[in-house]
Backbone:
């Protein structure tokens, strides 16, 4: 760990871009430290408003009571007592992808399995609205399960809604760890309603943040947090999103970082589908199953093979089965609507649906509602 990076990263009163401006000015984190220890230079930086007055006072207070080595010893001890570790940019486990994003984190604090940040790990960000529909939750579960079963680690922000559902599905798959990127200290669960996800992620996955332990989860932190979610990932999967949302901002960050954007289509007119349908119109890749991503992003044979198998299953359907299947979508559909759309009687429609369920083509998501399962 680079002690100068940890020290520079710990000041809560810095504007988010100040450390990077100082590094650009002086050339290196160690030189930033040396120059900030000089009262004349500190006063000049404050006068030029590169550093806020309150930050300058923090630095002066630090100079008056501790050496850097003493502070590092105490800081590391506090981290370990909280079950927290850290990596800086020179460390082996620092994700190399993040070195190439705008304002790469000087340090990353984590709890859990640090190997999930290594370059060889496949990672997909799964993001979406905090108020998903039943369709959005079902698609999240289905897609994340498929990705996890094929060795892809799911990255998200542990927020309510799609984020939490994505982490939970990855945990339940028991196949590959999930990565939660927080907008505050990793020693603080936020939101508290997702404490079960937080606990399970620490045990089987990874919780990570650029903010030191004890940092509150503030709304101003989340836009910065989102660049790490996209930066850690090979691509971004958007499940449901409104037109004006943090989800689309994260997708924009991903595009700036050269990441592939995938979007799940939604029903026209639904507020939760406006953002995803917009992304598709703008060139995002439309996906309906995990194999679409596996094949497109990784060139996986499993993706191509399952895609062919899916086509084979559909081609093998009987005329009545195809009539029912063709009316179903990935949005839950009530049985009465299936009957009307298919033009068959209730008994015949239910008999066909039973056959499709046994073949894994259709799935019942709640009482009386069905969706496509392939």
Residues:
């Amino acid at each position: 760990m680079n002690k100068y990076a940890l020290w520079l990263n710990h000041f809560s009163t810095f504007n988010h871009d100040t450390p990077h401006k100082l590094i650009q000015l002086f050339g290196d984190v160690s030189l930033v430290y040396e120059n900030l220890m000089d009262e004349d230079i500190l006063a000049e930086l404050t006068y030029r408003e590169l550093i806020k007055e309150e930050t300058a006072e923090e630095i002066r207070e630090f100079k008056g009571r501790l050496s850097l080595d003493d502070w590092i010893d105490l800081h590391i001890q506090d981290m370990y007592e909280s079950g927290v570790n850290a990596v800086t940019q020179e460390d082996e486990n620092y994700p190399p992808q993040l070195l190439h994003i705008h304002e790469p984190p000087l340090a990353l604090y984590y709890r859990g399995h640090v190997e999930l940040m290594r370059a060889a790990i496949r990672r997909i960000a799964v993001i979406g609205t905090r108020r998903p529909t039943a369709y959005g939750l079902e698609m999240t579960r289905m897609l994340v399960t498929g990705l996890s079963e094929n060795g892809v680690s799911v990255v998200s922000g542990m927020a309510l809604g799609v984020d939490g559902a994505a982490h939970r599905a990855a945990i339940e798959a028991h196949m590959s760890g999930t990565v939660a990127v927080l907008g505050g200290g990793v020693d603080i669960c936020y939101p508290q309603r997702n404490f079960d996800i937080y606990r399970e992620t620490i045990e089987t996955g990874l919780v990570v943040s650029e903010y030191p332990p004890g940092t509150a989860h503030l709304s101003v932190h989340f836009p910065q947090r989102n660049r790490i979610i996209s930066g850690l990932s090979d691509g971004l999967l958007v499940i449901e999103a409104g037109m004006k949302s943090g989800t689309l901002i994260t997708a924009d960050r991903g595009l700036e970082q050269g990441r592939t954007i995938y979007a799940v289509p939604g029903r026209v007119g639904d507020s939760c589908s406006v953002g995803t349908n917009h992304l598709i119109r703008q060139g995002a890749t439309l996906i309906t199953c995990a194999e679409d991503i596996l094949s497109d992003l990784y060139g996986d044979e499993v993706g191509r093979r399952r895609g062919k198998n899916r086509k084979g299953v559909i081609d093998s359907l009987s005329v009545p089965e195809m009539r029912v299947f063709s009316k179903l979508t990935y949005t839950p559909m009530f049985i009465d609507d299936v009957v009307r759309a298919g033009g068959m009687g209730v008994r015949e429609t239910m008999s066909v649906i039973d056959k499709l369920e046994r073949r894994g083509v259709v799935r019942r998501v709640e009482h009386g509602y069905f969706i496509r399962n392939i």
The CA atoms of residues 187 and 295 lie 37 Å apart. The two ends are 47 Å apart (CA to CA). The longest helix spans residues 134-149. The mean pLDDT is 90.
